[in-house]
Write a structure and sequence with these properties.
The protein has 12 helices and 7 strands. It is of the alpha/beta class. It has 2 domains: about 150 residues, Methionine synthase domain (Methyltransferase, Methionine Synthase (B12-binding Domains), Chain A, domain 1, Orthogonal Bundle), CATH 1.10.1240; about 120 residues, Cobalamin-binding domain (Rossmann fold, 3-Layer(aba) Sandwich), CATH 3.40.50.280. A 5-stranded parallel beta sheet has the order 4-3-5-6-7, with helices on one face. The chain has a two-stranded antiparallel ribbon with strand order 1-2. Helix 8 links the parallel strand 3 and strand 4. It is globular and about 65 Å long.
């Protein structure tokens, strides 16, 4: 179970030290805490992440594939409760709580892509379904989305900066699709592998994206789409886009709910179709090894 704040024992386990060491750090003013009504120490996840980053304690620069044992442990710790808690924090507009849940998951060993695939995406999908069924209003959906953006931004600020590879990637969302969050998650996934990223955001015309690609010559392009508002026009635009960049031989990754249908994918040839962020991260590592 992931709590809203961490106990002394949980922080000690995360930092791989004794409870007494955590108390000494807190008493020395190195690690800030709050006290419950009963006088017990409680530590905000964001504060623990800051302390670990500054002291270089335990945090990996990058999160790769997890072992089967670690995956089982993570699922036991996070499970349905944390997914439910994150969903409710979004609907309630509880920005700090939502951010704390993501950061705590990271501190407890979840990979970055695991947090995206197991916490953020299921919650956002459920919010979209409830809005579609009329069980959430437009205002509630907007509040939840804004809260998710804030939580993701806060998580990004707490992550250690990986060693940069000098490689450049560019990402965007399809024109007519205003879902901004997927492009931010893609950006963080690529950054976590040590790449520089130019994120052009949602609703990006492919003809304009093409000019930027020809100008910057990136080593990878990522395109996402949650919805496809004008399939025929976007298909034509994509065909022109691929023809223009063909000589550069830049691998293109495509992902998002709009490309889940095989017939849709046939219209958008790409070097890789990502079902989730974990798959995208693995393909990015493959590209890095080949280059």
């Amino acid at each position: 179970m992931i709590s809203k704040s961490l106990t002394t024992r949980e922080v000690a386990r995360i930092c791989r030290v004794s409870n007494a060491t955590i108390k000494r750090w807190e008493e020395a003013g190195l690690l800030n805490s709050e006290r419950t009504s009963g006088g017990h120490r409680r530590f905000r996840a964001e504060e623990v992440a800051r302390f670990q980053r500054e002291q270089n304690l335990g945090l990996k620069l990058k999160h790769g594939d997890e072992s089967a044992a670690k995956t089982k442990t993570r699922k036991r710790e996070n499970g349905n409760h944390s997914r439910c808690s994150f969903f409710h924090s979004l609907v309630a507009g509880a920005e700090e709580e939502a951010a704390n849940l993501l950061i705590t998951a990271y501190l407890l060993g979840s990979s970055l892509t695991g947090i995206f695939d197991d916490l953020i995406c299921p919650a956002m999908n459920r919010i979209g379904e409830l809005w579609y069924m009329g069980e959430l209003s437009v205002a509630q959906e907007h509040l939840a989305t804004h809260t998710a953006h804030h939580a993701v931004y806060t998580l990004r600020q707490t992550l250690p900066v990986p060693e940069m590879s000098g490689k450049l990637a560019m990402c965007c969302g399809i024109e007519g699709d205003f879902h901004e969050l997927p492009t931010h998650l893609v950006q963080m996934t690529i950054e976590n592998a040590g790449w520089e990223v130019l994120n052009f955001g949602a609703n990006m015309p492919l003809h304009s994206m093409t000019e930027e690609i020809l100008h910057h010559s990136p080593e990878m392009i990522c395109i996402s789409a949650t919805i496809m508002p004008d399939l025929e026009r976007i298909t034509r635009d994509y065909k022109y886009f691929r023809e223009r960049i063909e000589k550069l031989k830049i691998p293109v990754i495509i992902g998002g709910g709009a490309f889940s249908d095989g017939q849709i994918r046939n219209r958008f040839p790409a070097e890789f179709y990502a079902e989730n962020f974990a798959e995208a991260a693995r393909f990015i590592r493959e590209i890095a090894r080949k280059n």
